[in-house]
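quick one, 439 residues, struct below
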Amino acid sequence: MTDDLRTRALEALTAARTRTATLTSCVDDDELTAQHSPLMSPLVWDLAHIGNQEEQWLLRTVGGREALRPEIDSVYDAFEHPRALRPTLPLLAPAEARVYASDVRGRVLDILERTPLEGGPLLDAAFAFGMIAQHEQQHDETMLITHQLRRGPAALTAPEPPATGNGQLLPSEVLVPAGPFTMGTSSEPWALDNERPAHERVVPAYCIDTVPVTCGAYQAFIEDGGYTQRCWWADEGWEQIRQHGIGAPLFWRREGGVWLRRRFGVTEEVPPDEPVLHVSWYEADAYARWAGRRLPTEAEWEKAARHDPGSGRTRRYPWGDEEPTPAHANLGQRHLRPAAAGSYPEGASPLGVRQLIGDVWEWTSSDFLAYPGFAAFPYREYSEVFFGSEYKVLRGGSFAVDPVACRGTFRNWDLPVRRQIFSGFRTARDADGQTGGPA
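---
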């Protein structure tokens, strides 16, 4: 079992570093040190931050080794320096950042080989190594967002998703019966603190979209004056679109009667059957109101994704307990876009809901709050400091998320104004026809 854990940890760390190298080697040093948007860090900051977190947790805390670069800890402290100000810091140059991250990794692999994977919560099931692999993959997704924001020719390429979408042939929604289910986890070995502990939730019957809302459906909202009618918008959302002149998802523009979008340096026609991407919570909420529906609560989303009404069992993933494969979901940056709505039939839930994992992060109506019995681990700043009504929960992961950082219990959160993230949504309604639901 210990050897299996070491192998899993090694594979997760290696996959993350391979992806980091891809994202930072495809552009020159000027692009790495530039800030492509005040919303994001320079790519070189992420690169060194990845190494610094690994040094602090695996080299120093787990391995008990002497610090390599303690003088840079504050430079790469994400809570000390807002993203917009990070270019002003004394950052490591690209070559130095690469050497530093590589040096840390070499020492960490020695620690992984020699350290007993038991004897405390950081070591049990190789949790600390899994936590750092997830951290690096999360920053890889952040760097992919930066690549989407950068101007200039395409720097990344990937094959198209499989052409298996049949969203128009599927039922528009699925009824999820009322009753209890187990939300969260107490047994997933690499689950993070905000996913814990497992607890029972009782959810009234509701209907949820079979597939995420598509670009074509969202265009109908735009053409019907969705961005010009105050009645669909929450107060802050209306203020945002008026103040910033927003009239479509981020990266869209209308030209000659055709909707175009910019995607990783390529301009293309918006595909109508693909899940809509780069919309804020306010845009998702406004669309749902316009459609006579609402966003699902976080509990509704997770019940649709994990609960098997036939057996009463709660699964790890919609399709079962086995790890995701390319047949189940669009994950891991294999493709640089969502697959068409209705794709991945092998990844469907027991009730037939599709694409709950991968493709696009899905906004829910819920604030980011602690579960009953929550305990911060291993540090408050991962989750606890973000709890409250300021942040909304997203679930399910996107095409940019690695499987190690995506599961049926995984919780993401962001400010409801955010649009640069790989976010989409699906809608829901109460089974009695009323759209109102608990937040």
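The chain has a mean pLDDT of 96.
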